[in-house]
Amino acid sequence: MQVKICGITTIKTAQAAVDAGADFIGFVFAASKRRVSKQQARAIAEIIPPKVKKVGVFVNETTEVIEEIAEHVGLDYVQLHGDETPELVESLKIPVIKAFQITSKGDLTKLDHYKCDYFLLDSPAGKYRGGNGEVFDWSLTRKLPALNGKLILAGGLHADNVSEAIAEVSPEAVDVSSGVETDGSKDEAKIYAFIQAAKSTREEG
After folding, report:
1. Do 7 and 44 contact (CB within 8 A), yes or no?
2. Active site includes 122?
3. Which ranges of the chain have pLDDT less than 70?
4. By Cβ atoms counted within 10 A, which residue in 25, 52, 63, 139 is the most buried?
5. Which candidate in 23, 76, 122, 175 is catalytic?
């Protein structure tokens, strides 16, 4: 089971996530309390080993800005969390994770229109797109064989429910941000606990 720790804002937290076994580190370049500049992200990215993939999160950004930041930081993936069109996704030169807010079974039909490397299923948007700490109805994801190997599950995950989520949805990876925070800041102990819980689930199964 692969794990993405999103909303990283410091070198110290990034190093803790890497040491704990994270597979993806996420930087937010959209409106968020976890937003970082491309300069901050680049400084953090320099300590991340190549085996850990760097992801930039964008919301309704232009192709030019996405690609410029991706090159500056050295991103491996861009995660699009807004209303980006299938055409924009296909125009990008960098691998794409497209996020979708899931409120009903009908929301899943949108996935058919996109060609991307991963589909990220998240809870409905709150103040910001993503990182709101709410779960959605995981049973809606049943019978999604076309996503086999390309599904990332997000939305309200934490160390105490990630095993259940993995058992229900069978994602390729799980994504967490607020679920590994204490008082709005990343908590290294929670990061470690979450990664251990997620990775032990697949081993048991």
Report:
1. no
2. yes
3. 125-133, 143, 145-146, 148, 202-205
4. 25
5. 122
Give 60's contacts (C-beta < 8 A, 6+ positions apart).
82, 83, 84
| CATH number for region 2-204 | 3.20.20.70
Is residue 183 annotated as part of the catalytic site, yes or no?
A: no
Dihedral, CA atoms, 168, 171, 177, 182, nearest 10 degrees? 40
Q: Out of 6, 23, 116, 175, pick the active-site residue.
A: 6
Taking the chain, what is the end-to-end CA distance rounded to the nearest angstrom? 11
Q: Are the CB atoms for 4 and 199 separated by under 8 Å?
A: no
Q: What angle do CA 61, 62, 66 make, to 5 degrees?
A: 80
Q: What is this structure's pTM?
A: 0.93
**Phi (first) and psi of residue 35, to 5 degrees:** -65, 140
Virtual torsion, Cα 199, 193, 74, 67, nearest 10 deg:
90
CB atoms within 10 A of CB 96: 21
